[in-house]
Amino acid sequence: MEQIEIDKKFNDAVTFFKAKKYDKALPLFEDLAKLDHAGAMYYLISHPFWNWASKIDIKTRIKWLQKAADEGITDAEYDLGACYMLGEIIKADYEKAASYFLKAAEKGNVKAQVDLAFCYSKGGGVPLDYTKAAYWYGKATAQGDSFSQDMLDALKSEGKI
Description:
By secondary structure, the chain is mainly alpha-helical. Helix content is 71%, strand content 0%. The protein has helices at 3-18, 22-34, 38-46, 58-70, 74-86, 94-106, 110-122, 130-142, 146-157.
């Protein structure tokens, strides 16, 4: 299948998905996943396709998530960072978590900005750095995240920034 055709199929699948026409989106994503399409793989493991993802073994789900993150899919970068941070599905690795949070945070992902700021405020996977924590909390606050504003206020009241 030509790249133009693959791109069209993916765009069609996303359009169906956003229109909540899951019965039309799912087979397109499945076909694309068989072609090793990272975006389709990510949709299949991260969105509610009637528990479809539960049919995929955990190693395959992590492999697909890794592929999507490595191809620069922002939400996948955040999700993989969260997996490394929590250590529930894969072994905890705070340095990898912070690295993936940074990639997503730089692209404007608010959750990644908050979690990266937290990493800096606690020294989790990165050197303890209240200035960088404040920077990332500030970025998230600018996007309307009230928790980040609370965290900034706490850093200020504790004299850390």
